[in-house]
Fold these 2 entries.
Entry 1:
Amino acid sequence: MKVHAFWLLLPLAGALSCSSAGGPVAVSSPDSKINVHIEAGEGGAPRYSIYYEDSLVLEPSALGLTVDSTSLATGLELASAGKVEQVSDQYTLLSGKRAACSYQANRRVMRFKEKNGIRLSVVFQVSNDGVAFRYVVEGEGGRIRSIPSESTTFNFPAYAKAWLHPHAVAQSGWEHTQPSYEEYYSIDIDAGTPSPLGQGWSFPALFRCGGHWLLVSEADVGRQYCGSHLGHLSPEGEYAIAFPQAPERMGPDAPLYPESALPIRSPWRFITIGKSLGAIVESTLTSDLSTPAKIPDASFVKPGKAAWSWVLLKDDSTVFQVQKRFIDYAADMHWEYCLIDAYWDTQIGYDKIRELSGHAQSKGVGLLLWYNSNGNWNTAPLTPKHRVTDPAIRKEEFARVKEMGIKGLKIDFFGGDGQSFMNYYQGLIEDAAAFGLMVNFHGATIPRGWERTYPNLVSMESVRGFEFMTFEQANANQAPTHNTVLPFTRNAVGPMDFTPVCFSEIPNIKRVTTNGFELALSVLFQSGIQHYAEIPEGMARQPDYVVAFLRNLPSRWEDIKFLEGYPGKYAVLARKGQGRWYVAGINGEETIKNVTLRLSGLGSSGSGTLITDGETPREFSTKNVDGGPVELAIKPHGGFVFVTDAE
C-alpha cells in the first residue's frame, strides 16, 4: 500500500494491460462501464477513445503538447503503460453541491520516451462518472520552460448535439471587462458549429451523443498553468484545447501561457459521462480532481445567505442609511450576511463602514465588501480601486477590514485566463485566508475546483446572472430558457453567484418569470453565499409561508439529486439540508409542463409542503401533501418548491 499525494493507490491484481504488441492500452472505470483506449497513433501521435458500455462516445482524440519548440504530440514512443492502480479519496466540501464527497477511480500512467531531454507522461483516471487525464512534463535543468500550446482534442461523433457558451473577445464589452463568462449558451446545436464570437467555446461544455450525456471541463489549475477553453473551429466535431488570447495577462511582461521550471503538471481535462443528466448534475469530478485544502484552519468559513441592495437599487443605494436598513432586513430574514457593493469607500467611508459593521454584529449579521480588481485589464471606474493588486497593499487592506469585523470580500472585473491571472486569483484567496476572510469573485473565470483547495472561496459569478435582467428587456425575455440550462452546465462545475429570487417589478423592465419560478431558483442554484436580489419592500408583500421558506432554507447543502429535466426546457432538482429534501423545478417554455414527483428514491415518503404559482404570475399557492407521487402542472415560465417533512 502506497500513499501518493492525496490519493490512495492500490495495484489491481490482473488489471487491464497492453493488448498485443502495438495495440491499444486500456483502463476502465471501477464498474467497468466506462472504457478508455489509448493508442500510439500514426507517426507517434497518441490518441485516446472513450466507450460507455458498448457505445463509442468519444472518437479517437489527440493527446500531447509543445514545450518550448519541442513537439510532444508527434514522434513519440511509449516507454511504459504502467500498472492500473486504484484511487480512493474522501473529503468534505464547505461550499458545494455535496458536503461529504467520495471518489474512486482506476489510474494508469502512460510514459513516453525522452525527446530532446524532455519526458512526457499522461495520467489517466477513470471513475464511474467520467474520464480525467493530465500531462506531467519532466526533464533536467532548472531553467524556465514554456508551453505555447496543447494538442489535446475532444472528438465527438458527427451526430452529437451541444450546449456551448461562446468565449468572448478579450477586453471587449463594458469597460473592457471580458472575458467574464457571461454569454448565453448556444442550445442544442450541431457538434462542430463555429463559435459566434470567433474565440471558441468556454468550459464547461455539454454534449449529447445518442443516449449519452458528456460534460467537458478542467480542474486543478495551479500556478504553473493558464486556464483554457475549446477552440473556435471544430471540424467534424473535433474540439481542440485553446489557450488565452494575448490581452489576458496582468501586464505586457506577465506570463500568458504556462511558464515554469520542470516538472510542469497541466490541469486535469475531464469528461463527465452518463446515460442520464443526473450523471452531470450529481458529479463532483471538478473538486474530486482538485488539490485538497491548503488552508489549515477554515473555521472562519461560514456558508450562508445574504441581503444585497445593488442589483435592484443600483449605485445610489450604497449609502449609510440604506445599508443599515438592509442589515436589519438580513437579520429579520435570519440571513447571515449583507453585501455592501461598489462605491462604499466614497459614499459611506471606512469610519461609517466600521459603524455599520458594529451594528451588523449586534444583529448577528456579517458584512461583505466589494472591491475592483483594477489594473490595466479593465477601465471600470467603480471603487475602491488599487487596493488588492499589489500584495503589500492588499495585506494592509485585508488587515484593516478584518479588524473592522468584515467577514468577506467580493472582488470584481478580472482580465482573463492567462497564467498571471491564475496566480493572481490564488494569491488573493491565500492572502484573504490569512486574515480570516471569505472571497467571492465576480467578472471572473469559472470554478476549477478551487473551492476545495481554498475553502474560503465561497462562490464565483462567471455566469450571465440576474443583474443582466435589470439592464435590458431582451435579457429578461431570455431568462426562463437561460436558467434551465445552468444546472446542467455552469452550476454543475462549482458554486455560482447568480444572485437569484426577485418578486418585485424591475424598473423599466417587464419580468416574464413568475414568482414561483423565482422562488425555485433559491434551491435550484447553488452558491456558498447565496445573495438574494429581493429587497425589503418586495419581501414584505409576500405571503408569510414564502417568507418563512426563505428564512429557513439551509445555509449549506448536504446532497443533490437530479429528478428530471432537459437543458433549455425545464429542470427539477432536489437538495438535502437539515434533514429534509428541498425539491425545486422551473419551466423555461411557454406551455404547461406536467411532472410527477416520485420521492421514494430520496428515502422520503413524499409528505411535505408544496409552494407553487397562484392564479396570476405574481401570486403563490401552497398546500400540504400527505405522501405518494405528487402530480404537478408547472405553468409557463413558472416554478415550484417542495419541502419534505423532517426525517
Entry 2:
Amino acid sequence: MKYSSTVRMLAVSLLCMAGCTENVDTSARYVFQEKTIVDYLDTHEQYSEYMQLLSKVPVSVVSKTTLRQLLTARGHYTVFAPTNEAIDAFLVELHRKKPDLLSAPSWDAFHSEEKRDSIRRVVVMNSIIDSGDMDDCFMTWDFPTTNRAEIPLNNMNNRKLSVHYLGTDTILMNGECPVDLKQRDILVTNGAIHQVNRVLAPEEITAAGYLQDIIEHSRPGYLLIGKAIQACGLMDTLSKIRDEVYEDRYLRGEIPEYVSLYIDHHNTSEKNTTPRHRLYGFTIFAETDDFWLTQGIDPQEPSSVLLPKLMQWILDNKQYSEEYDTFTTGDDYDSPENLLYQWTTYHILPFRMSADRLVFHVNESGYFSKNPTSLGIPMYEIYTTMGKRRLLKIYESQASNGVYLNRFPKLDNGRRGSYQELSCDPDKVGCRVDRESKKAVLTDIINCCIYPIDAPLSYNDEVRKNLARQRLRFDGMTLFPEAMNNEIRLKKSSDFANQDVYIPNTSIYNYFENMQMNDQTIFIYLNAYEYAWPNLHSDEMKAKGRFELTFKMPPVPRRTTYELRYNVLPNGDRGVQQFYFGSDLNRLPAAGIPVDLTRSIESMKAGHEPDTDDDDYNAEVDKRLRNNNVMKGVLSVTGSGAPTNNERHQTSNLRYIIVRQTLDPNETYYMRVKSVLDSEMKEFYMDYMEYCAKEVYDNPETPEDIW
C-alpha cells in the first residue's frame, strides 16, 4: 500500500486564514505531452459542471489561484470527480432538504452568494486529496483493505474519506458515493482520477449535533445512549471540534512551525514540524436500542421515565465495582459522582478512532506491515476513558475474528508457545465492536465515531480483576488523546512533517494535556512507520536539552502491589535520567538511582546471558536480572515481524523496573523524568511501559510469560 502526505494541503489550509496571497508557480509545472488532471477532465463532457466549479473556487479565501489552476500544476492529486448528473442530483437533494437556502435546484437560485460559494467549496474541496511532493496519489489498489477504513490523508476540506466494499468490485466512498466501475484509476501526469456518481459532501455535524438530532426526532439506534449523554451534561464537551486558542496562536506565529533538531540522522530536512491544529475527538462504544428492548427498557420513553429505569438496570446487573466505586443514584445525572454519569462516560474515549485504528498492527511477531496478509499474535491497546479515570482494553486476534473490548482469553504463552488464543471463557469474551454494518457511525460525524457493541460494557469488579491478572503494556503515545485526534500517532505518511513531529514546549503551549515539560525540553515524536525498528509499533518519543518531563499515568485496575516498568533501546545517543513517581505532583519522590540509558543489558554485569535450549536455566537468568531491577525485552515485539528478530534476543533492548509499590485505582499517579547531565544533546527515550501486578510477576504456579 502506498501512502501520501498532507504538506501542500495543510499549507493551503493555513493560507486560507493567514492573510497572505498564494499563487501557483507556473514555472514549476511539468511540460509533458501527456495530460494533466485538467486536460483529461476538459476533454470529457460528463465533467463539465465539475470543471466550472473548479474554475470558480479558489484554494483559499485570499488566493487568486483556483482549484482548476492548482490541478494543472505538478503534484500528486487524487480527484473523485462527480459527473454532471451527480451534481444535478446533489442540487435537487439540497433544494429538497433546505428550500430556504435556494429557490430551485440550480447554482443561480441561491438566496445568498456567500452560501452558494460555500456549497461550491464543499463540493470541490471534499473531492480532492493532495498528497504533496513526497508520495503518490491513491489508486483503488492503494485504498485500505479493511472495509469502512479511511484513506490515511485528509481531503482538502480536512475531512477523511472512508472506503466501503460491496462484493468484488463495488466501492462506495463514505458509504454512499459509488466509484464508477470503468472510469476509475485514470492515471495522468499529476495524479489520478476516479469518477464518482454522487457528490462527496459530508455534513459538518458534531457528535452533540448528531445525538441531539436523534433525540429530537426519536430515531431508534442510539436513542438511549443519546439521552444518557444529554442528561449527564456532556453535549457541550461533544460539540468541540478544535482548540481555537491554539489555532489563533499558531497562525499568529506565536507557536513555531518547526524546530531544527537532528535526531539519529532520521529527518534529512533537519526540521521537526509542529502540528498545525489541536483538534478534539471522541469514540463512543454503545449498546444499541435493540439491546435495551430485550432488557425491557424502551428508549422511546421520556427521559424522566427512561433514565430511572436505566439506573435501576445498572444497579440490578451490578454494572459497577462494589469494591471501589462510590456514587449517588439520584437525578443529579450531570455530577461525576452519579452512577449514570460514571457508567455513561466509561463508554466514551476522549479521541476519535477510525475502524482500522482501533488496534494497531505494525511489527508484532508474525505480522509484517509492508506485506500484511494476516494477523500475527494477539494485540491490544490500553486507554483511559472519560469521566472517572478507568482502563479500557481494546483487543484483536486471529481467533477473535474482530475487535473486542475487555476480552481476556487463555493464550498459548509458554516460552515455546505461539501466543495465540487457546480458548476464551464465556464470561471473559467481552464486547464485540461492530465496524462493518451500517450501524457503525464513522464518517457522518466530524469529531466522533460511534460503534455498536453486542454486550453490556461496564467497569465492574470482574473486569478490574481480569485486568489486574494480566501484564498491562501500554505505548507511551496512548497517554495523549491529542496524538490520535491530530493524526500524530502512526500516521501512514512518509512525509517528514508527519514522521518527525515537534510537540510545542509547555512554556509555549500545553499541547499534550497529560505531559508537562520544563522550558529547556525539546520533545519529538518519531513516527517511523516504514522502519523496522524493534520497539512497539516501530515508533518512539525522544527529547533533548536539559529535559524534565512529567507524565500523568494511566490508572491501575485494583489496589495491590505493582511494578512499573520502562522499556528502552540503549545506545550512545541516550542520556542519564532520574525517575520520580508518586501521586503528589508537587512532591514526587525519586524512584531509585539515576538510570544510564546508554548501557545495554549485557554491559551492566547484572547476570545477563543469552537464552539457551534449557528453559529452566533461562528462568534462573531472568530471576538474576530481576534482582537487579532489569528485565530482557519481550518476545512479541520484533524488528520486521520475524520471530527471531525480537526484543528479547537483543541485548540492546531491556526493561527497567522503576518502582515496585502498592497503587490504588482511585489515585492519580505521575512519572517525572529528569536529565542529570549537563549535556543538551543527550536524549530522553520512551517507547512503552508496563503495569504488572504482584500476582502476575510473583506467581509460583504460573510464572509471568516472556511475551
